[in-house]
Structures are given as C-alpha cells and as structure tokens.
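Working notes for the structural subgroup meeting. M.R. asked for a predicted model of this chain before we commit to crystallization trials. I am recording the input and output together here so anyone reviewing the notebook later can reproduce the run.

Input as submitted:
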Amino acid sequence: MPRRWTDKDERKYEHIKEGELKRGADVRRAKEIAARTVNKGRREEGRTENKRTLGTGNPNTSLKQRSKEELMNRARQMGIAGRSRMNKTELVRAIQTH
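Returned structure, recorded in token form:
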C-alpha cells in the first residue's frame, strides 16, 4: 500500500489550498483544509490505513483480545442493534451469539 501522495494528490492539494487562499483563509488554515481533504479521499479509497476507525481486528486473534473499536466495527458489519450502548464484554457476547 503506497504511503506517499500521488502526483494527482499533490495537484488536488495545491488546487484546494489556492481556492481557500482566494476565499480569504490564512495560509496555515488553507494548508490544513487541503491536507485533510486529500487524506479523506485517500482513506475513502482505501489507500491509507486507519486501524482505529476502519479495522475489525486480526481474524486470527480471539474477540477478547481485540480493541473495543474493532469490536464495534465488527458489530456494525454484522448489523447488531444496540452496540453503541454495549461495553466490550457485551460486544464480544453479542458477536459470538449473532
């Protein structure tokens, strides 16, 4: 998986940054908006890792060893209702019984 921005990402960054500067944003803010926008696109295309928000954990590890965020993502994939109110133990139980 490439870790660097492509030439297209660089062009997109410069285009967004210039647009923000024209709208009156200061340089620091324009750079931040441009970088966040490019990185969001990369993340949505699967070109960058975001283990905390996207991963469901290593399938070779037990559910109890996975983080709560990984369990939440797995429960979301499975369509388990009420997962936002569950603690880690309840999530493990719900995934196992689903």
